Amino acid sequence: MSDDSRPSPSAGPSAARTAAVIPAAGRGVRLGPGAPKALRALSGTPMLIHAVRAMAASRAVSLVVVVAPPDGAAEVKTLLDAHALPERTDFLVVPGGRSRQESVKLGLDALPAGHDIVLVHDAARPLVPVDTVDAVIEAVRDGAPAVVPALPLADTVKQVEPAGTPGEPEPVVATPERALLRAVQTPQGFDRATLVRAHETVTGEVTDDAGMVEQLGLTVVAVPGHEEAFKVTRPLDLVLAEAVLARRRLNDGF
Asked: Deepest of 59, 94, 99, 140, by most Cβ within 10 A of its Cβ?
């Protein structure tokens, strides 16, 4: 639950308006058969609704665009209408594409004029705290063309030579210095014009939108992420997410 007494980042008439795009067209095969990942329930509420509320919890976010499965836009619109969402935020549902990159581009295309900052957030990260969202927005307002929330790595990382057959031993070829590495989360924040240019010019498969901006030769900056902004991809992640929600209800009445 958001606290309306908390000031939004750089609040004021001159502050750039922020929109969030949530690509939610994936099937989530690692969670097993059933509903698409974004529609799986956490404490009785679909993950997508938790993710939408997480973006709308920021008073800086005035529009949330949900990119639905190509044949599921009506279902997602009905889902949003059925759940209580902040009245100060507008919501829009558009059909997505065959890939995440195509879906984000379709969400960008649907943005009305006047939103100069764009967040791109994974529907599978339903529990990102509002302070993290605000920190990303603030960094873009301070002049960064692209911002990612990120955490230091707890584990040692090895670079390997991939095996030809899954399950075979893989030779280790290097041990990167862990202090220089970060695990990147979402929402990732962008100057809108920069993100549009990246999607219009960068081709090939990418793992995140910030990587596209890197390919333009621009600097991407990292701000502190949060351990609760983890991505729900495996059944064990669902258990952890339920535990986080239970703690929030106990401590904060969330």
From this structure: 140
